[in-house]
Protein backbone atom coordinates (compact mmCIF):
# COMPACT_ATOMS: atom_id res chain seq x y z
CA UNK A 1 0.00 0.00 0.00
CA UNK A 2 2.98 2.29 0.29
CA UNK A 3 3.58 2.67 -3.44
CA UNK A 4 -0.12 2.49 -4.34
CA UNK A 5 -0.76 5.76 -2.54
CA UNK A 6 1.56 7.59 -4.90
CA UNK A 7 -0.21 6.40 -8.05
CA UNK A 8 -2.87 8.56 -9.67
CA UNK A 9 -4.26 5.93 -12.02
CA UNK A 10 -3.51 2.48 -13.36
CA UNK A 11 -2.73 2.27 -17.06
CA UNK A 12 -2.12 -1.48 -17.37
CA UNK A 13 -3.31 -3.58 -14.43
CA UNK A 14 -2.10 -7.03 -13.37
CA UNK A 15 -4.85 -8.86 -15.25
CA UNK A 16 -4.04 -6.89 -18.44
CA UNK A 17 -0.35 -7.75 -18.06
CA UNK A 18 -1.17 -11.46 -17.75
CA UNK A 19 -3.35 -11.36 -20.88
CA UNK A 20 -0.73 -9.42 -22.84
CA UNK A 21 2.05 -11.84 -21.90
CA UNK A 22 -0.04 -14.85 -22.92
CA UNK A 23 -0.69 -13.33 -26.34
CA UNK A 24 2.93 -12.26 -26.87
CA UNK A 25 4.02 -15.75 -25.84
CA UNK A 26 1.87 -17.27 -28.58
CA UNK A 27 3.12 -14.84 -31.23
CA UNK A 28 6.78 -15.27 -30.33
CA UNK A 29 6.52 -19.06 -29.96
CA UNK A 30 5.02 -19.35 -33.42
CA UNK A 31 7.97 -17.46 -34.94
CA UNK A 32 10.89 -18.65 -32.79
CA UNK A 33 10.19 -22.26 -31.67
CA UNK A 34 12.84 -23.67 -34.04
CA UNK A 35 15.28 -20.72 -33.97
CA UNK A 36 17.02 -21.21 -30.60
CA UNK A 37 17.17 -17.43 -30.11
CA UNK A 38 19.01 -15.34 -27.55
CA UNK A 39 16.54 -13.17 -25.65
CA UNK A 40 18.40 -9.98 -24.82
CA UNK A 41 16.85 -8.09 -21.93
CA UNK A 42 17.60 -4.39 -21.59
CA UNK A 43 18.25 -3.74 -17.90
CA UNK A 44 16.87 -2.74 -15.57
CA UNK A 45 13.38 -2.13 -16.92
CA UNK A 46 13.00 -5.51 -18.60
CA UNK A 47 13.30 -7.44 -15.36
CA UNK A 48 9.71 -8.15 -14.23
CA UNK A 49 8.40 -8.44 -17.79
CA UNK A 50 11.16 -10.75 -18.96
CA UNK A 51 10.82 -12.90 -15.84
CA UNK A 52 7.13 -13.50 -16.51
CA UNK A 53 7.49 -13.65 -20.28
CA UNK A 54 10.08 -16.45 -20.51
CA UNK A 55 7.85 -18.69 -18.43
CA UNK A 56 5.25 -18.81 -21.23
CA UNK A 57 7.87 -19.68 -23.90
CA UNK A 58 8.10 -23.45 -24.37
CA UNK A 59 11.10 -23.73 -26.69
CA UNK A 60 14.89 -23.61 -26.35
CA UNK A 61 16.40 -20.19 -25.85
CA UNK A 62 19.28 -18.45 -24.09
CA UNK A 63 19.16 -15.35 -21.95
CA UNK A 64 21.43 -12.35 -22.24
CA UNK A 65 21.37 -8.89 -20.71
CA UNK A 66 22.62 -5.44 -21.61
CA UNK A 67 22.42 -2.20 -19.72
CA UNK A 68 22.47 0.83 -21.97
CA UNK A 69 21.73 4.45 -21.21
CA UNK A 70 20.60 6.88 -23.83
CA UNK A 71 22.06 10.31 -24.19
CA UNK A 72 19.23 12.77 -24.64
CA UNK A 73 19.88 15.87 -26.63
CA UNK A 74 23.20 16.47 -28.29
CA UNK A 75 24.15 15.23 -31.69
CA UNK A 76 21.99 12.42 -32.99
CA UNK A 77 24.79 10.16 -34.14
CA UNK A 78 23.95 6.64 -35.26
CA UNK A 79 25.03 5.26 -31.89
CA UNK A 80 24.06 7.68 -29.14
CA UNK A 81 23.82 5.32 -26.17
CA UNK A 82 26.43 4.28 -23.65
CA UNK A 83 26.86 0.60 -22.88
CA UNK A 84 27.00 0.19 -19.10
CA UNK A 85 26.95 -3.59 -19.22
CA UNK A 86 27.50 -5.65 -22.33
CA UNK A 87 26.32 -9.12 -23.35
CA UNK A 88 28.48 -11.97 -22.13
CA UNK A 89 28.14 -14.09 -25.28
CA UNK A 90 28.77 -13.72 -29.02
CA UNK A 91 25.73 -13.07 -31.21
CA UNK A 92 27.25 -13.99 -34.59
CA UNK A 93 24.76 -16.05 -36.66
CA UNK A 94 22.23 -16.07 -33.81
CA UNK A 95 18.62 -14.90 -33.87
CA UNK A 96 18.18 -12.13 -31.30
CA UNK A 97 14.95 -11.04 -29.66
CA UNK A 98 15.41 -7.88 -27.60
CA UNK A 99 13.06 -7.66 -24.61
CA UNK A 100 12.23 -4.10 -23.62
CA UNK A 101 9.89 -2.44 -21.14
CA UNK A 102 8.87 0.52 -23.31
CA UNK A 103 9.80 2.11 -26.62
CA UNK A 104 9.61 5.87 -26.64
CA UNK A 105 11.93 7.90 -28.92
CA UNK A 106 13.37 4.69 -30.36
CA UNK A 107 16.96 5.89 -29.83
CA UNK A 108 17.96 3.14 -27.42
CA UNK A 109 16.68 0.37 -29.64
CA UNK A 110 18.09 1.87 -32.78
CA UNK A 111 21.57 1.90 -31.25
CA UNK A 112 21.33 -1.60 -29.78
CA UNK A 113 19.92 -3.09 -32.99
CA UNK A 114 22.71 -1.51 -35.06
CA UNK A 115 25.34 -2.81 -32.65
CA UNK A 116 24.01 -6.38 -32.66
CA UNK A 117 23.79 -6.36 -36.44
CA UNK A 118 27.37 -5.11 -36.67
CA UNK A 119 28.36 -8.04 -34.50
CA UNK A 120 26.86 -10.43 -37.03
CA UNK A 121 23.48 -11.38 -35.55
CA UNK A 122 21.38 -13.35 -38.04
CA UNK A 123 18.23 -11.40 -37.13
CA UNK A 124 17.28 -8.80 -34.54
CA UNK A 125 13.67 -8.22 -33.50
CA UNK A 126 12.06 -6.51 -30.53
CA UNK A 127 9.39 -7.56 -28.06
CA UNK A 128 8.24 -4.64 -25.93
CA UNK A 129 5.62 -4.58 -23.21
CA UNK A 130 4.63 -1.00 -23.98
CA UNK A 131 4.93 1.28 -26.96
CA UNK A 132 4.59 5.07 -27.08
CA UNK A 133 4.59 5.64 -30.86
CA UNK A 134 3.85 9.35 -30.46
CA UNK A 135 7.25 9.81 -28.77
CA UNK A 136 9.21 8.44 -31.71
CA UNK A 137 12.24 10.42 -32.93
CA UNK A 138 13.65 7.55 -34.99
CA UNK A 139 11.04 5.65 -37.01
CA UNK A 140 10.83 2.08 -35.72
CA UNK A 141 8.05 -0.41 -35.23
CA UNK A 142 8.75 -3.35 -32.90
CA UNK A 143 7.67 -6.77 -34.18
CA UNK A 144 5.90 -7.65 -30.91
CA UNK A 145 4.04 -5.01 -28.92
CA UNK A 146 2.18 -5.66 -25.68
CA UNK A 147 0.18 -2.46 -25.60
CA UNK A 148 0.27 0.97 -27.16
CA UNK A 149 -0.09 3.84 -24.73
CA UNK A 150 -0.43 7.61 -25.19
CA UNK A 151 2.47 9.96 -24.54
CA UNK A 152 2.32 9.64 -20.73
CA UNK A 153 5.14 9.07 -18.27
CA UNK A 154 4.38 5.73 -16.61
CA UNK A 155 5.99 3.73 -13.81
CA UNK A 156 5.80 0.22 -12.42
CA UNK A 157 6.46 -3.34 -13.58
CA UNK A 158 10.08 -2.41 -14.32
CA UNK A 159 9.57 1.22 -15.29
CA UNK A 160 11.05 3.76 -12.91
CA UNK A 161 10.88 7.35 -11.85
CA UNK A 162 14.33 8.24 -10.48
CA UNK A 163 15.00 4.50 -9.97
CA UNK A 164 11.88 3.99 -7.83
CA UNK A 165 8.57 2.20 -8.53
CA UNK A 166 10.08 -0.64 -10.60
CA UNK A 167 8.63 -3.11 -8.07
CA UNK A 168 5.03 -1.95 -8.50
CA UNK A 169 3.11 -4.98 -9.88
CA UNK A 170 1.20 -2.90 -12.46
CA UNK A 171 1.83 0.13 -14.70
CA UNK A 172 0.47 3.49 -13.65
CA UNK A 173 0.82 7.26 -13.68
CA UNK A 174 2.26 9.07 -10.67
CA UNK A 175 0.41 11.70 -8.69
CA UNK A 176 1.77 15.15 -9.63
CA UNK A 177 3.10 15.77 -6.10
CA UNK A 178 5.48 12.81 -6.38
CA UNK A 179 7.50 14.56 -9.06
CA UNK A 180 10.25 17.02 -8.27
CA UNK A 181 9.40 20.65 -9.07
CA UNK A 182 11.49 20.55 -12.23
CA UNK A 183 9.91 17.30 -13.50
CA UNK A 184 6.42 18.56 -12.69
CA UNK A 185 6.93 21.38 -15.16
CA UNK A 186 8.26 18.98 -17.80
CA UNK A 187 5.37 16.54 -17.29
CA UNK A 188 2.80 19.30 -17.66
CA UNK A 189 4.45 20.51 -20.82
CA UNK A 190 4.44 17.05 -22.40
CA UNK A 191 0.73 16.72 -21.65
CA UNK A 192 -0.13 19.70 -23.77
P1 LIG B 1 13.93 5.61 -25.99
O1 LIG B 1 15.37 5.50 -26.36
O2 LIG B 1 13.46 7.04 -25.89
O3 LIG B 1 12.99 4.77 -26.81
O4 LIG B 1 13.94 5.19 -24.49
C1 LIG B 1 13.37 4.09 -24.00
C2 LIG B 1 13.76 4.00 -22.55
O5 LIG B 1 13.41 5.20 -21.84
C3 LIG B 1 12.99 2.89 -21.91
O6 LIG B 1 13.71 1.70 -21.97
C4 LIG B 1 12.79 3.40 -20.51
O7 LIG B 1 13.89 3.03 -19.72
C5 LIG B 1 12.77 4.90 -20.64
N1 LIG B 1 11.37 5.40 -20.69
C6 LIG B 1 10.69 5.84 -21.75
N2 LIG B 1 9.43 6.19 -21.43
C7 LIG B 1 9.31 5.96 -20.10
C8 LIG B 1 8.22 6.11 -19.16
O8 LIG B 1 7.09 6.51 -19.48
N3 LIG B 1 8.50 5.74 -17.89
C9 LIG B 1 9.71 5.27 -17.48
N4 LIG B 1 10.74 5.11 -18.32
C10 LIG B 1 10.55 5.44 -19.62
MG1 LIG C 1 14.70 0.71 -20.42
- Indicate the mean pLDDT: 92
Oligomer: single chain
The number of distinct β-strands equals: 8
Estimate what percentage of residues fall within beta strands.
Answer: 25-35%
- Order of strands, main sheet, comes to 4-3-2-5-6-7
| Low-pLDDT sequence parts | 73-78
- Our count of helices gives 4
Question: What layout of secondary structure does this protein have?
Answer:
Elements: E1 7-12, H1 14-32, E2 38-43, H2 47-54, E3 62-70, E4 81-85, E5 95-103, H3 107-118, E6 123-131, E7 144-148, E8 171-174, H4 181-191
Parallel strand pairs: 2-3, 2-5, 5-6, 6-7
Antiparallel strand pairs: 1-8, 3-4
Helix pairs in contact: 1-2
The chain binds inosinic acid (IMP) and magnesium ion.
Q: What can be said about this structure in brief?
A:
This protein is of the alpha/beta class.
Written account of the structure:
The two termini are 31 Å apart. Helix 2 (47-54) links the parallel strand 2 and strand 3. The chain contains 4 helices and 8 strands; from the N terminus they run E-H-E-H-E-E-E-H-E-E-E-H. The protein is an alpha/beta fold.
Amino acid sequence: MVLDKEIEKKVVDQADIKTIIKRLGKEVSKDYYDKYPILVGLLKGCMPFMGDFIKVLDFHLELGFMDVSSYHGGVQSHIDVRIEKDLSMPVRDRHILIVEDIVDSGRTLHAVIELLKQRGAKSVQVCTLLDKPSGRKIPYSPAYIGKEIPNLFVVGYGLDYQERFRNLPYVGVLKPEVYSEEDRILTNQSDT
